[in-house]
Amino acid sequence: MTTIGILISGRGSNMLAILDAIEEGQIPARVGCVISNVPDAAGLAAAQARGIDAIALDHRGLTREAHDRRMHAELVERDVDLVCLAGYMRLLSPFFIRSYPNRILNIHPSLLPAFPGLAAQRQALDYGVKVTGCTVHVVDEELDHGPIVLQRTVDVLDDDTEASLSARILVEEHAAYPEAVRLFASGLVRVDGRSVVRVDASAAG
Ligand code: GRF
Fold first, then answer.
1. What is the Cα gyration radius of the chain?
2. Which tens digits make up the pLDDT trace of 117-127?
3. ∠ Cα 175 179 180 (to 5°)
4. Atom of ligand 1 nearest to the CA of 169
5. Pocket mutation for ligand 1, best pick of 162, 170, 174 (most atoms within 8 Å of C-beta)
6. Which helix (H) or strand (E) segment is 50 a member of?
7. Any atom of ligand 1 within 6 Å of the Cβ of 147
8. How far apart (Å, rounded) are the C-alpha atoms in residues 21 and 45?
9. pLDDT for residue 22 is more than 70
10. Which of 49, 50, 141, 174 fits a 20 to 30 Å CA distance from 17?
11. Predicted confidence (pLDDT) at residue 24 exceeds the cutoff of 90
12. Does 148 score more than 90 pLDDT?
């Protein structure tokens, strides 16, 4: 069975959506641990309250790779084989990304490749797009760039604020992320170049 490690920096609502889906039996996986680089992140306490091994690893004072090596050691100790970034607000080192080839997922609140980076909802409003949404993608060594697992759209309304748009996108994130994790944990998809494609079950074995 797949063992998931979830990396967070904040409130952890996407983490909770994944935990809920696992508890409801929708994802054939267990969560080995949740790691936060922000020791007082609300998501860390929420994970602990759910009985999950919740680990605070403060990144301050360490190089990116030194911090990532500590996270990696915790994940390896728990046999984690799928890493989910859920509001993890730091870039990962090449060392970490190469340790989990095509096995790190991230969620981003826009329809990539539009609006990568910070404040994607603000970027969408400022650009004036009529449709935005969220993207779950495989993490590669470029920011918000790897192969796309799935996307969900959200209409932008004339009177949207950053807060109102973010709230509607978040609803879609909470549906998209568990579904993407299910596809990976169940072995239903594989990465083929820039594309994530369905595994042809009839050709397997
Ligand atoms: C989400 O909007 C996610 O798309 C972005 O960071 C936010 C994290 O929210 N990467 P939460 O911590 O999962 O509530």
1. 17
2. 999 999 999 99
3. 120
4. 2
5. 170
6. none
7. no
8. 19
9. yes
10. 141
11. yes
12. yes
Looking at this protein, which amino acid is placed at residue 102? N
Q: Using CA atoms, how far apart are residues 24 and 182, in angstroms rounded to an integer?
A: 12
- Measured at the CA of 75, the angle between CA 105 and CA 87, to 5 degrees, comes to 40
Nearest partner of 81 among 201, 1, 178, judged by Cα? 1
pLDDT of 203 over the 90 cut: no
pLDDT of 108 reads: 98
Token pair 């996108």 is found at 169
pLDDT of amino acid 204: 54
The first and second tokens of residue 200, run together, are 């042809």
Alpha helices, H only, 42-154:
42-49, 64-77, 94-99, 120-127
Ligand 1, pocket-test mutation among 144, 164, 172, 173, most atoms within 8 A of CB: 173
Residue 41, pLDDT score: 98
Rounded Cα distance, 182 and 169, in Å = 20
Instruction: Say which residue the tokens 């790897």 belong to.
Output: 146
Distance CA 116, CA 134 (A): 11
